[in-house]
Amino acid sequence: MNDIAKIRSEVKQLREMYVPNERDAEIRLHLLRCLDVDDAGELIPAPARYSGNEARGVMVIEGSGGGKTTAIKSVLSEIDILAPNPETGCPRYLALDVPPYATLKSVGTAILEASGMSGVSDKATAAMVWRAVRHRLALLGIVVLWLDEAQDLVLGDSAMETEKTLRMIKSLMKGDHPVVPILSGTERLGEVIGYDPQVSRRFTKIRPSDLEFGADEGSLLGLIDAYCAEVGLGADLGDDLPARLIHASRRRFGRAVVLILHAIESALMDGDEILTIDHFAVAWVKEDRNDPDSNVFLVSDWLSVELDQQAEEYEEARTKRQKKKLERV
Fold first, then answer.
1. H/E element holding 319?
2. What are the residues facing 144 on neighbouring strands?
3. Beta bridge partners of 205
4. Max Cα separation, the chain?
5. Strand blocks (E) in the chain
6. Using CA atoms, how far apart are residues 200 and 97, in angstroms rounded to an integer?
7. 181: left (phi over 0), alpha (psi -120 to 50) or beta
8. Per-residue model confidence (pLDDT) at position 327
């Protein structure tokens, strides 16, 4: 194995080292509350029923790069009763990434395809597709349905489309074979769901906290040291590196991990034995921008570097447009 291949292999191993945090514990707790127990108090692969015959769901709301997707994936894989159903050989949960500009019909079709059912007719209506979804989920014994980036499903092109989507989500939580929905997405997801109180009350909401200056700096340094130890690197980072890292990552844990891994890869590629702030400056260029005057790891007044201003303005304008649509429902 040549040097570059060896380095890429080492960095890949670091990426595969999952780092649990408070998200995992909170998501696991909320999800377990949605699952039923037998007479002995042991969990069983079925939703808990509330108000007679309704399941409950979990909503995880966090900005992009926070780490919610990785945390949910880890929690689902570790809950024993959601392990493969011996009758089907498939897990008792189904996960789907909602594509941008999704429609109710296209997401229903994608769920069917993810469950192993193809050939949905183009002539099928959204209602027909979602009847097939409910039947298919029941047939496979699916207990949990996870829709990631769910804001792209509920943010329809019209108020009527959004209302239909919310009703469809509600219908999955009722009947003889309800499922526990997990909806994960950005803050826009929580805002739109809030327009239908009947849907909103069926979900417990998780909003993971952002990284904080001071409080989380020690944990980040510990993570960096652990990663460095795995690949034989030392570290000489300076006192303000953790704070710079928190700012550069928009206070989001997942983004911070990505920057750390890029910095370590840069050090290994350069043949250096010590990880320094200069390697983080290179990582910043890979992830963000190539302007030295706005490199969080180079400039002295790093807190003044504005991040994602255009993206935030775009999201704010999009949310305002969506709110106007929903207010006309």
1. helix 309-327
2. 93, 180
3. 59
4. 64
5. 35-37, 43-47, 57-61, 93-97, 144-148, 180-185, 203-206, 234-235, 274-275
6. 21
7. beta
8. 52
